[in-house]
Amino acid sequence: MDAQELIARRIAQELREGMLVNLGIGIPTLVANYLPAGLHVYFQSENGLIGTGSVPDPGMAQPRLTDAGGKPVSALPGACAFDSAMSFALIRGGHLDMTVLGGLQVDQQGRLANWTIPGKMVPGMGGAMDLVTGARRVIVAMQHNAKGKSKIVRECSLPLTSARIVDLVVTDLAVIDFANGRARLLETAPGVSVAEVVTATEAELEIPADVPEMQL
Amino acid sequence: MDAQELIARRIAQELREGMLVNLGIGIPTLVANYLPAGLHVYFQSENGLIGTGSVPDPGMAQPRLTDAGGKPVSALPGACAFDSAMSFALIRGGHLDMTVLGGLQVDQQGRLANWTIPGKMVPGMGGAMDLVTGARRVIVAMQHNAKGKSKIVRECSLPLTSARIVDLVVTDLAVIDFANGRARLLETAPGVSVAEVVTATEAELEIPADVPEMQL
Amino acid sequence: MQTISLADAVALIPDGASLMIGGFMAVGTPEPIINELVRQGRKNLTVIANDSAAPGRGIGKLITARAVSRLIASHIGLNPETQQQMLAGELECELVPQGTLIERIRAGGAGLGGVLTPTGIGTSVEEGKRKIEVNGREYLLETPLRADFALVGAFLSDYLGNLQYALTARNYNPIVAMAADTVIVNAESIVPTGVISPDHVMTPGVLVDYLIAHE
Amino acid sequence: MQTISLADAVALIPDGASLMIGGFMAVGTPEPIINELVRQGRKNLTVIANDSAAPGRGIGKLITARAVSRLIASHIGLNPETQQQMLAGELECELVPQGTLIERIRAGGAGLGGVLTPTGIGTSVEEGKRKIEVNGREYLLETPLRADFALVGAFLSDYLGNLQYALTARNYNPIVAMAADTVIVNAESIVPTGVISPDHVMTPGVLVDYLIAHE
Known about the structure:
Pfam family, one (chains A, B): CoA_trans
Distance between the termini of chain C: 18 Å
Oligomer: heterotetramer
Number of helices of chain C: 6
Keywords (chains A, B): Transferase
Structural class of chain A: alpha/beta
Strand content of chain C: 25-35%
Family (chains A, B): Belongs to the 3-oxoacid CoA-transferase subunit B family.
CATH class of chain C: Alpha Beta
Order of helices and strands of chain C: EHEHEHEHEHEEEEEHEE
CATH class of chain A: Alpha Beta
Largest interface: A-D, 42 and 50 residues
Structural class of chain C: alpha/beta
GO molecular function, one term (chains A, B): transferase activity
Number of domains of chain C: 1
Protein name (chains A, B): CoA transferase subunit B
Helix content of chain C: 10-25%
CATH superfamily of chain C: Glutaconate Coenzyme A-transferase
């Protein structure tokens, strides 16, 4: 299993019946592929749809039905379309049960930086700041390290996405939460030891007595 | 011609092609009856419709299609329905070309009181405050006097509807505007002299050299 | 979303609850829910709605039953009982300009801390409120409204709770459906999922907690 | 509402005008109007829109043509030319959180002096903005946006300019249609008045100044 699949599979375990969920681009999008059988979840696309379905068959794409990246999607029976004011009223108003986003850095308090590398990458924040501020549950999907450096840091050097503390970070090495106001190691990836996670992590990690391995 | 018809007929002359117009209850509602032939005007009902038509024929009333008083109306071809947030976005956002409302008092600067007589009549302001604040043109339709007392006063003794100056007051005796920051007599009703209007009016009236009679 | 019987839905609402109720002069108000609230004898309710309709219609029935101790509304002029109870000090009544009321509810549902409106400046409505100047113009800061329950009247619901309203019965319904902890819907017709086009859904089913099953 | 040819509609827009443009990654953007702006060589435009799409698509064509000197958007990440022009100092770019951007445009169209949002608190977005506390929580005061022109892409228009949008092509279109001095619409199909049900009209025709006639 590659790192992306591992992260996506683990996050899919956080989905619950009837949830309204927004998946960011990249690894988060993959989470939909691992929806547990029988579970009914609503996916929101912030450009104005609830009930986003899979990529249409060849020749079936509808140019007025796309994801937030402008790529064709399908719509499930019972889908609904709306304007951008409504879309962000849903996000900001606490109606979104979960959002899964990529991350550049998460600090040891649980604050996320994921929208810009000043002077280098200036894509704009898009919906990320509203998603992190407004969703009931925020899960960050990212590689534990980039270019040999930990992305779970003592203090974010990159501009923050929100002052709001994220709920869970899932990486190729670990599952971490911030329920006690600081980073806590909840699970390790299969075959990865607690010591390996600690070594690979710049942030100070709280290590409970029992740290199970992810069950995938 | 009775006083109400006279007022309504005169106000109907203020309608222009393509205008979006909101008519309050009472005399203002009558204005629609005197729409000049060939003129195309959109009437908004603040409970959520543009394109309000006349009272339906017997047996044709639709309980989900009413005016702001809950009375059945019809809808013209090209009508559209919307929610209350949209309805007041239209009103407050300057999209409403004209509103016609009843009045209890108008002061000599042009400020309207029309929503409450404290301790006696507390119906609530409904949409009146938004209409007077937001409409491009505000016309007050009312009797010049009530119980022998002028309703065009030096200073409103009743609570104001808005700090905004109304554009025109049409009564059974006169047409008055406030373009110069004070009440100015523009027209008299047929058979009514300027002196009679002045006598009947508590507010100080500016009297131009030429005050024509209403042309109905 | 779950389906529920009318009696069970209303049993969820305790005495003293705050309710946002859709409808405008009872048009679009979920009348069966109102009737059942009266039947079950609910008391001491806070009601947030455009108006109190008229005796015998919509919210007017709650007023007659003296089920309401506090009302936030824009207009009570067509219900003399509301005015009598208010003037007698039996009903606490906050009157709010209609465009302000709907924006306060929208803000509550959209996660906004408030909106700035020019409506009410220079009138008694500004009492006790913060005034904020933007681009040289003064506005009132109006704060969000939320409620424990939203009672929504729809024309159509599909099996997932996607709602469509008809004509002027839409009014406050889609806005209150976003601003309450628990959303209870009575639909005139229930249709299979897919019957309402995605473009015609006015309230997404994910906002609905309970859809009242027809008997 | 009047009908107008594409060329005449675009001729109304002077160099230096501010434009709100509907669409999300070019989906719902009125492509014929964009093409004609490029053909007529318009310059120095201010564009307010969700994003700058991608080269060769929607607003991306205006960026490539260097018709835009100022952009207010939430996302430019899928158009490398926008980022290059911005980093080279040739394009002034204000990046706004998407939910804030759409509320600012809505406020501009709805006559609100601003809205309070929690989005951006504790980030660089709060620089230069007023912070206001409501019920113990801090919010940013975000002010209204308006433009000289709104360029709207609809799926259907009737003869009166009543508009319906399709699926995710709705996005910013109905909101920008309320927030500009002059509203120009390109509809994919034009249908007789009455074909669109009153309940399915998403932008009332009274908001439309010019509907582009098909050739």
